[in-house]
Design a protein that fits this description.
Layout: H1 6-18, H2 22-27, E1 29-36, E2 42-44, H3 46-59, E3 64-73, E4 76-84, E5 92-101, E6 104-112, H4 115-121
Parallel strand pairs: 1-6
Antiparallel strand pairs: 1-2, 3-4, 4-5, 5-6
């Protein structure tokens, strides 16, 4: 059961990503937190994902997410926006989803921003 607005939790999680705040990210993950990338690769567990974020930020120190549209449906937050990786890759269109459980992020998933994925989530 969520007591806080699920969109606000997703916004806060993203703010921690953008600030590369490992402590903040960890504080918003469930113990069985799951991360799924665009290729469908899965990383499970708070401890594993904490290490994953540390490595990610080491490899991509300029990485930032910008949200342009956010919707929530019960415990699922659907986000459209783009990722900034570097000056060479400034605008990478993305769809993220966040599953929120007990005011924590249980799953953070990334999808290609395609027409098919937009239809899948009803955000055409």
């Amino acid at each position: 059961m969520n007591t806080r607005d699920t969109k606000l939790i997703a916004f806060q999680f993203n703010e921690y990503i953008n600030k590369q705040d490992i402590k903040g990210l960890t504080s918003l993950m469930t113990e069985d937190h799951t991360f799924i990338d665009r290729a469908g690769e899965i990383d499970r567990g708070k401890e594993s994902m904490t290490k994953g974020w540390i490595e990610f930020f080491e490899h991509f120190p300029d990485y930032r997410n910008t949200f342009t549209r956010v919707e929530s449906r019960d415990d699922l937050v659907i986000i459209i926006g783009y990722a900034y990786w570097s000056e060479e890759n400034k605008h990478d269109p993305v769809i993220w989803t966040a599953k929120i459980e007990n005011d924590l992020v249980a799953e953070w998933r990334i999808y290609e921003d395609t027409e098919e994925n937009r239809k899948k989530f009803g955000v055409t």
